[in-house]
Automatic annotation (TrEMBL):
Organism: Cohnella kolymensis
Protein name, per record: GTPase
Source lineage: Bacteria, Bacillati, Bacillota, Bacilli, Bacillales
Span of domain CP-type G: 55-222
InterPro entries cross-referenced by the UniProt entry: G_CP_dom, GTP-bd, GTP-bd_ribosome_bgen_YqeH, Mito_lipid_metab_GTPase, NOA1/YqeH-like_C, P-loop_NTPase
Highest taxon, organism lineage: Bacteria
């Protein structure tokens, strides 16, 4: 029997995984002209929702963008900047302008110096090989900065199609919904269609001037802690209020546990302070390095939680990352999905980070 396909975007329909492309409730699977959940929501509620793919599938999908004349809007999450920036994007967009939209700035402390942050973003984008036409800082949650996003799209688009790209959970749906309501005539039913020449279900949302917003699936990066922890622990790891930094004065040979997700050892260096930027919902335990192995063996999944013991079973084992912070530099130890630890000493430090295998752990210039 031929597999049924979505009458909107053409993706093969399935009724097993709600967040995977082509989802439709079982009862609608056999109907004539059934549409997938994403197309259904755009058509009926003028509302985009998320579907996901991995990076390889995504880059295949994006292969054709370089030869089009379009604007690429890349959304990243400020709480997980290095975890949500799409590496290799530049190669695929060709000469098309890229607007970098930095979302979730409501999570940063209220005293943040926004000009400095913007410079930091520009520098980080460059280090990731991305040439950006403009950077806009915003918060979909607080509805701040979105006017600036629409303005920037207007001034850069010049009657071109708009591709919206981003990793999962960066706020892409929220932004697209805003663009739809700003650009299209809501009295008219929106139609969606498969974007020509693509192998995946990029969905084309027509605009009044004959051009389109092209909503691409969100990319899943398994290098982000938030993608691999048990779903029930997401609430503890994802901050939903402005971060409240906590500063620890540490001597060398001291350890911090973040639940039982990550262990941070200050291996060597003069006594100094480290400022932790993680969700307030995540318990932190401090101990001596010499006691850390035993503490972990005895208390993982219970006192050191989340995750609980059952959740830990489903996670990859830790790998150790040794990082050397040079004297007189301002650096963060960045752990994708968890947050970051700013090193405040001027004399340098050697630290070890134990994190689940595959999670991105790195040093970066301090964000704040
Ligand atoms: P998508 O997967 O990229 O389409 O992202 P969504 O729009 O579905 O949002 C993902 C999650 O991030 C949801 O839990 C949102 O509530 C949250 N979120 C989106 N925008 C913001 C924001 O500006 N600030 C904060 N704190 N959370 C946000």
């Amino acid at each position: 029997m031929q597999q049924p396909r979505c009458a909107g975007c053409g993706i093969a329909l399935q009724s097993e995984h709600t967040h995977t492309p082509g989802y439709v409730p079982e009862s609608s699977l056999d109907k004539d002209s059934a549409v997938c959940q994403r197309c259904f929501r755009i058509k009926n509620y003028n509302e985009a929702s998320s579907v996901t793919v991995n990076q390889d599938e995504f880059l295949k999908l994006l292969g054709g963008v370089a030869s089009t004349d379009s604007l690429v809007v890349h959304i990243v999450d400020i709480f997980d900047f290095q975890g949500s920036i799409i590496s290799g994007l530049q190669r695929f967009v060709g000469n098309n302008p890229v607007l970098l939209v930095v979302n979730k700035i409501d999570l940063l402390p209220r005293v943040t110096n926004w000009n400095r942050l913007r410079n930091w973003v520009q520098k980080q984008a460059k280090e990731n090989g991305l040439k950006v036409a403009d950077v806009v800082l915003c918060s979909a949650r607080r509805n701040t900065g979105f006017d600036r996003v629409v303005e920037a799209v207007n001034s850069l688009r010049r009657r071109r199609d708009v591709y919206v790209v981003g990793a999962t959970n960066v706020g892409k749906s929220t932004l697209i919904n805003r663009l739809i309501s700003d650009y299209s005539d809501l009295k008219r039913e929106l139609t969606v269609s498969r974007y020509p020449g693509t192998t995946l279900d990029a969905v084309e949302i027509p605009l009044e001037d004959g051009k389109s917003i092209i909503d691409t699936p969100g990319i899943v990066y398994s290098s982000r802690l938030t993608e691999i922890i048990p779903r029930e622990d997401l609430g503890a790891v994802l901050p939903d209020k402005p971060l409240k930094p906590i500063t620890y004065q540490l001597n060398e040979k001291q350890t911090l546990f973040f639940g039982s997700l990550v262990r941070f050892d200050f291996v060597e260096g003069e006594r100094q302070s480290f400022t932790v930027y993680v969700s307030g919902g995540l318990p932190i335990h401090r101990t001596k390095m010499e006691k850390a192995d035993a503490l972990y063996a005895e208390h993982r999944g219970v006192m050191l939680a989340p995750p609980n013991l059952e959740g830990l079973e489903g996670m990859p084992p830790w790998t150790r990352h040794r990082l050397r912070i040079q004297p007189n530099t301002e650096q963060d130890v960045f752990i994708s999905g968890l947050g970051w630890i700013q090193a405040n000493g001027s004399s340098g430090a050697t630290v070890d980070v134990y994190a689940p295998r595959g999670i991105k752990v790195m040093l970066r210039d301090s964000i704040l």
